[in-house]
């Protein structure tokens, strides 16, 4: 179905706590649209349990032939709403059918939200999953970060020989050094649900020994992100779609990756390493080399995704780099013009709302239909 001019999107609003009731509908829409494990219910449900608040809403849009869009939104204040975007989520929580234009959906959602919504932001969009829409009088896209992936095609030897000489030579020298020292390296991959809680605990201990512990951002089994990763990975493992990579120097755990799989993609969510490893050794890169060899040999996935800001080492690992983006939809064209002129700062919209927007009529609370 293509959107007809007479068709009006119908949005319903629910508290985020209602997500479990609509999880299978969300799964179906993800399968018909983005088709990414990062928007599977196994990822979204534990994310909401740990990071949603009482002001977080689940929004569902229907048409004559069914549901065409779903999202999870958080109010930022000042009439600004955004998709819920904890740092643990590489993608914003938004799905919509590709045959339905984005702008009418956002316009209807802006009118439906409580109070006077001035801006609705869709953060961290992936052009590989959803084409970047053109700007319009009420819609503006902004660059987010450049991210990288490795296509898993052909043989590992062909892939590896296409890498830079410095990378190949450096890792070869590291392996020779380890061999000379009598250090045995080992790659371990865990996939069972009952292994995930221990994996997150091990990851937390490794991460807590490094610089993240000083910032208070390290994973711990008892903090929100530790609970999220344990529950999320167990959910994916129950479907055969989780993979925890551990790398060992003899009996010393020196690096870990927390990964999920789906739709032919392996996604690296978190990486950490032992910062006490002697200088000149890169356990993460050694682990990545062996892991990539397995991916090319097993041919179970077609893409290895990093979903982080491109670092120098990414450019040695792959040439496939793309730019992710944000989408802002404004209630009125003037808001878009003023926001762009102010460099996109929310404070301008907040001031404008106080000065220029008439007091809204009393709004009903979100419907729980």
From TrEMBL:
Coiled coil: none annotated. Keywords: Transferase. Residues 166-313 form the BioF2-like acetyltransferase domain. It holds the Pfam family Acetyltransf_6. One of its GO terms (molecular function) is transferase activity. InterPro entries: Acyl_CoA_acyltransferase, BioF2-like_GNAT_dom. Transmembrane segments: none annotated. This is CelD/BcsL family acetyltransferase involved in cellulose biosynthesis. It comes from Pseudoduganella lurida.
């Amino acid at each position: 179905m293509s959107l007809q001019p007479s068709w009006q999107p119908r949005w319903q609003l629910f508290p985020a706590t209602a997500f479990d009731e609509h999880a299978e509908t969300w799964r179906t829409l993800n399968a018909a649209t983005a088709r990414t494990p990062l928007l599977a219910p196994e990822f979204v449900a534990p994310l909401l349990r740990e990071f949603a608040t009482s002001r977080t809403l689940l929004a569902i849009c229907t048409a004559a032939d069914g549901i065409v869009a779903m999202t999870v939104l958080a109010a930022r204040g000042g009439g600004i709403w955004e998709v819920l975007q904890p740092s643990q989520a590489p993608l914003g929580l938004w799905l919509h059918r590709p045959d339905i234009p984005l702008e009418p959906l956002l316009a209807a959602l802006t009118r439906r939200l409580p109070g006077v919504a001035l801006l609705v932001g869709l953060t961290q969009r992936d052009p590989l999953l959803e084409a970047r829409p053109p700007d319009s009088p009420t819609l503006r896209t902004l660059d987010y970060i450049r991210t990288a992936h490795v296509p898993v095609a052909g043989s590992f030897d062909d892939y590896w020989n296409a890498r830079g000489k410095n990378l190949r030579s450096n890792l070869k020298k590291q392996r020779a050094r380890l061999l000379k020292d009598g250090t045995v390296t080992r790659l371990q991959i865990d996939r069972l649900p009952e292994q995930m809680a221990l994996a997150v605990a091990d990851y937390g201990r490794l991460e807590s020994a490094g610089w993240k512990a000083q910032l208070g951002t390290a994973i711990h089994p008892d903090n929100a992100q530790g609970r999220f990763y344990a529950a999320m990975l167990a959910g994916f493992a129950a479907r055969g779609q989780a993979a925890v990579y551990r790398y060992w120097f003899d009996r010393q755990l020196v690096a870990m990756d927390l990964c999920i799989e789906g739709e032919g993609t392996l996604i690296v969510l978190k990486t950490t390493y032992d910062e006490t490893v002697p200088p000149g050794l890169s356990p993460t890169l050694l682990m990545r080399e062996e892991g990539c060899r397995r991916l090319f040999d097993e041919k179970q996935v077609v893409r290895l995704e990093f979903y982080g800001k491109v670092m120098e080492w990414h450019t040695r690992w792959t040439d496939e780099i793309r730019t992710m983006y944000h989408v802002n939809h404004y209630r009125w064209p003037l808001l878009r013009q003023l926001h762009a002129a102010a460099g996109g700062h929310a404070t301008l919209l907040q001031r404008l709302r106080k000065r220029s927007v008439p007091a809204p009529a009393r709004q009903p609370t979100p419907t729980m239909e």
